[in-house]
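Quick note —
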Amino acid sequence: MVDVKRLAKGFWVISLVVLLLGGLVLPAAAQSGGVVTAEVDRTSLSTDEVLLLTVTVDLATDAGQPSLPALDGFDLLSSSNSAQFHLGNGGMQAQAIYQYQLRPTRPGTLTIGPIEVEVGGQRYQTDPITVQVSQGTGNLVQPVPQPALPGFPSLPNFPSFPNLLGGGGAATGNLPVFPAAPPAGLQGQDFYVTAEIDQATPYQGQQVVYTFRFFQASELFDQPEYQAPDFTGLWHEQQPEQAEYVLEVAGRSYRVTELQTVLFPTVVGELTIDPAGLLIPGGFFSNDQELHTQPVPLTVRPLPDPAPAGFQGAVGQFSLEAAVDPLQTVVNDTVTWHVAISGRGNIGNLPDPAWPEGPEWRAFDSPASVETTFADGLLQGTRRYERVLVPTQAGSLTLPPLTYVYFDPLLGSYQTLQSGPTVVAVAPDGQSTAPRLPTLPAGSGGQPPAGDGAEVAGLQPLKPVQDTWQSSRAPLPFQAGYWLLWTIPLALLVGQWGWQWQQKRRAGRAEQRQQAQAAAVARQALRQSGPGSAPAGQILLDYLAMRLSRPVVGLTRYALAGLLRDKGVPDELVHQTMDCLAQSDATRFAPAAAPNAGLLAETEQLITALDPFLS
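Predicted structure written out below.
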């Protein structure tokens, strides 16, 4: 008779051995099983068309980005990603969608190999995809840009930086090819930033162009926030126009956005331009990224000694034009001296010319008008003057030459510009059509002669003035009621000041009490948190608003981090605060459940650590 217990025990032992051996020989990447899927929008196309490859990843657990195989026979034009949420029987489900635009490079049967994605610590791979490609006419059909989120419009441009969301992650479109060699540190990252200057050893006052570049290979979830350096020791002007290029590096297509700032050193010696920053907002399942450039050193050389007479600090390359209009006038009439200084340099801050003076002219100056443009990587323009001159004597009057001295950094020497002399023909004042005052007869003592009311030289007789004036009352300042009335507004001002002082004192005490109790209120809210309560991130934001005495809702993570650093909070605590807020935001999109006890405890510890720095 068969021993059932012994047979069952042997069955479980054999099964356990099979499972253990199977685990040892399992392949490194399992089939997707619906966790990861890949599909194309067509299976037949020509070399003139673009193939759209879509990879969908189930976000039930932590998931990485797809790893594309070698795309033999295809060029990767652009990539983008988004997240989608929908309700099913098991609650809310989330998916990450990655889209790639591929252009066939040759006809035939082309295969897209398996695409691998790591989900929950397990690697999954999709099935290969085969498409048929026919020979096209050579007229490429431009790819359709994919928005950052399906059905959502592109976000507007933000101040001082271009709209980086338009056209997909690295959509090439008609962008020109990046004209320089790729940076050494760019080795396939999603995002990368660099900064450089065109002059490492400029003269004081010489133009320097600072160029910030953003290399983008993936789609942006939201507009980034650019933080320019302080440019200490440098006069600076950021240019509103940006250039865009396309660059192929490490098998990825990058969209390069270039932002330039014109600098003019104001001090001599060794300077360092601090790193520029770019905050890239994260998506639903990714944190914010902070990118920083390397500091840029430069050595500012002093201008040569000795400087010639008349030099007032102009540095660049300039030309001078001068003209007088009209060339014929009369005494006490006006002529205008038109002067224009044009060229390359700090046009807006150029020193004015040294105007020649003379007793034969009276001069009236007006502010200069400035026109500037930024072209070919240089700031250039024109500074115009219109000086009004009034001749004080007749004759052929000569305006002396106008001299302007500047330093040319390209030549390394001082240069002098000079206009030619100008002769103005000035007629005597008697030939002027200006009205003249009437001449009274001698002996009249300045009074018109008496008569029967006849007018002399168009003047009416003066009305006789009484010998004395009499007042029925004492002067107003000597009346008691006048000074009594002045006490009324003075009393009102004192009362208003006292009331406002009392209100501010009460408000200050209430704010101090609120700040002192901020940590205790936050801890109590965290400990009482339950279903339907405010999330940990909202409690943390309310605490920060009370401690900083200002609203923080609506601030970007970059701006909030700056406020904490200004209060002396260490970088480690700042990063913990940002991570806590990001984790709290992620739980808002998860299925309804009890609050995360670990996150609540972590938030309470974080508030305890922050409180000494914010007190």
